[in-house]
Amino acid sequence: MKTALAVFAGVLMILAATAPALAQRTEPPPIEIHLGVSLVTPPLLLVNTGFCQVVNVASEPRLVGVRIFDHTGAQISPGEGAATCIAGQALQPNTSCFVQTDVFFVFAHCRITVVGGKDDVRGSLTDLGTNVTVEAH
């Protein structure tokens, strides 16, 4: 009896400890499906707004996804500026598109996902305040 009571008390303590965390979750986490390969830029300090640009160097159209993240992993794109990389739209050969962020004074990196091969596109992240650019690999 004492053992069953101790186990029951332990279960109650675990439930009490995890209840606040469970209560904070109001919706399921987002599901992301990554089809293709990704290129990522090294982190860059955005002193001003920045943008990630992608060029299709393949001979065929390629589907690309372009997003900018801060050092915590939070997505900070697109900003209020125009974003010409549109999800689901194929990037034609020898053309480019970009995504801009309005967040600054933060370390950021750009993730470019392409349906095809890594050699099909080139990408970079540029800080508009310092004109520093880093290339995606």
| Overall residue-averaged pLDDT value | 80
Instruction: Detail the poorly predicted runs.
Output: none
Assign a percent range to the helix content.
Answer: 10-25%
The arrangement of helices and strands along the chain is: HEEEEEEEEE
SSE-based structural type: alpha+beta
The main pleated sheet reads as: 5 strands, antiparallel
Number of strands: 9
Radius of gyration: 22 Å
Domain tally: 1
The CATH topology name reads Hypothetical Protein Tm1070, Chain: A
Amino- and carboxy-terminal Cα gap:
63 Å
- How much of the sequence lies in strands comes to 35-45%
CATH class identity: Mainly Beta
Shape: elongated
CATH architecture assignment name: Sandwich
- So how many helices? 1
Structure description:
With 137 residues, this protein is an alpha+beta fold. It has a single domain (37-135), classed as Hypothetical Protein Tm1070, Chain: A (Sandwich), CATH 2.60.290. 17% of the residues lie in helices and 36% in strands. The chain has one helix and nine strands. It has one helix at residues 2-24; strands spanning 37-40, 44-46, 50-56, 62-70, 90-91, 96-101, 106-114, 121-127, 133-135. Strands 1, 2, 4, 5 and 7 form a five-stranded antiparallel sheet that branches. Strands 6-3-8-9 form a four-stranded antiparallel sheet, with no helix packed on it. Strand 8 and strand 9 form a beta hairpin. The longest helix has 23 residues, at 2-24. The chain is elongated. The relative contact order is 0.27. The mean pLDDT is 80.
